[in-house]
Amino acid sequence: MQTFFVQPAQPTALSDIYEVELPGYELWATMIQNVHILVGSLDAKEFSAALSRTLQLWPHTAGRLTNDGGKYKIYLTNDGVPVEFEERPQELTSSVVPDSHVIQSNLSGLLNSPTCQRGALDFKVTLLRFKIVSFRDETTLGISWNHTLGDAAAFFRFTHAFSQFYQGLHLVYPPPTFEKPVFPKPSETTIEELRPLMYYFHELYSEEELRKKYSERLHTSERINWSFERQELETLCNFLRQRSPSAASRLSIHDSLSAYIVTVINRILPSQIRKIKVTDSYRFSGASFAFPDVAGNAVIDVLTALPEDPTDITGIATSIRESLTHYRQHEVISTWMSTVSHLMLAAAKAGKSFYYPPSTEIMPVNSMATIDWCSAHFGQPESHRHHMSGHGLLYLRVFGANPWRGDDGLWHAPEGRIDISIGVPQGCRKKVLDILAQGFHSIQTDG
Q1: Quick one: pLDDT at residue 447?
Q2: In the sheet where 362-367 sits, what is the strand order?
Q3: Is 160 exposed, middle or buried, given 0-12, 13-18 or 19+ CB atoms closer than 10 A?
Q4: What are phi and psi of 138, to 5 degrees?
Q5: Under a CB-based contact definition with an 8 Å cutoff, are residues 183 and 338 in contact?
Q6: Distance CA 385, CA 99 (A)
Q7: Closest CA to 348 of 18, 19, 26, 20
Q8: Contact in structure between 424 and 394 (CB atoms under 8 Å)
Q9: How far is CA 322 from CA 253, 257, 309, 327, in A?
């Protein structure tokens, strides 16, 4: 295995400053890790040149995290970003990634993950890392992105810019901005009012404890992958709109899909899902503190209490939409961000991290369906695939589906198909799959 380093082209977009300050809400102690699969090989020279130009626009990715007297910053050191290269000429990509579903079991061998790293807030390691693996038939590109660099939307913009430069094309999206909104310190009253909703701050953990927690939770559930055709989801959404006149114009496909999955799980589990936590972006909310192109994190958690009837799909979808409408009010976002920023900074200063504990009563939902990861295709729009790994108990993840190769050997476009992944309790996997196989007809004739 070889490693080489790529440095930002000069001058960078931030050549006039030496640091980027990180408010508390940026201190996510996790990584976002993606693997892209390309037919054939990557051009090493073009790869390095394109990455250098991308780092030039996103220079904080080539910096180092520091703690300056309790203030977290990224020093713009312009260090080289490590790229590992490994050859596996006797293996096919399918030996590691067996199908086209976005979520896979284990991609660790395709990612550059230093064994010495203590955690995402480790000051000694680089914030961005790459790994290229050359298989007999295809090449994988693994990208490890520190969450302090930005949320999934920011990560996508970076990857898309990299893809465009690799192809010798102009940028599709505006270059990133680095001005971070600063939210006022919350009052103790506000903190105590919101703390019950932020259940993941109730207990904090060290990096070692956190690794153990993440490892343990993989064994508490079994992963299910499933795909839905766009037309199916539109039909479901229209059906629910007809049954919920008050929310008819507002119910979304995402509301409908989340509600459907809740009803599927609640038909099986002895203890019912009582709440849904949706990770929602305020990046394009139009608020004075929302900067659409910021290289940062612009997300909040929306907690919805569900109706008494655990299989009332219309009521559940309506409750989700009403919660999102409430939480998207600018003053609500500001208050929430003020509190969560305070708590995240306090946790980081204590050397601890928050953790989303698995529960059979809460279904966390993280949807990237609006992010077109496959458009960052490095010149292979028909065959490029994008993958991630990991699952947790009742953790629903939603993505736009990948292309897939048919029996005819040809690539087929997803055409709006949606991929989901969710962890279900041990012993429940077959029951859930059986209900999903029935389609939406069963719930449309219910009640």
Answers
A1: 43
A2: 221-228, 418-425, 396-400, 362-367, 275-281, 299-305
A3: buried
A4: -145, 175
A5: yes
A6: 10
A7: 26
A8: yes
A9: 14, 15, 17, 9
Angstrom distance (rounded) from CA 31 to CA 125: 12
CA distance 297 to 63: 17
Question: How many alpha carbons lie under 13 Å from residue 165 in its C-beta half-sphere?
Answer: 22
Cα dihedral 277, 282, 287, 290 in deg (nearest 10): 140
pTM of the model: 0.95
Per-residue pLDDT tens over the stretch 346-376 = 999 998 988 888 899 999 999 999 999 999 9
Distance of alpha carbon 66 from alpha carbon 47, whole angstroms: 29
Mean pLDDT score, 45-64: 98
Q: List own/partner pairs for 406-412 with CB under 8 A and 24 or more apart.
A: 411/382, 411/383
* Adjacent-strand bridge partners of 216: none
Distances (CA, A) of 47 to 79, 131, 194, 215: 18, 12, 46, 34
